[in-house]
Amino acid sequence: MQRFYTGRLNGQCSGRPRKPIGEVEQGETFVIEASLDTELSPDRDVEKEGPVFVSGVKAGDVLAIHIADIVLSKWWGADPDYGMIPEILELQRVKDVGFEVPREGDELILPGDVRAPYCPMIGSISVAAREACPNPWDQGGNMDINEVRKGATVYIRAQHEGGLLALGDLHAYQGDGEISGTAIEANGEVKLTVEVSDRLPAPRPVIEVDNKVMTVGMGLTYWGAVRSAVRDMTYLLMSVRGISLAEAYSTAVKGGSLRNGAIWMMSDHHLITMVSDEGRWPRTVFLELPFG
Question: Whole-structure pTM over 0.85, yes or no?
Answer without folding.
Answer: yes
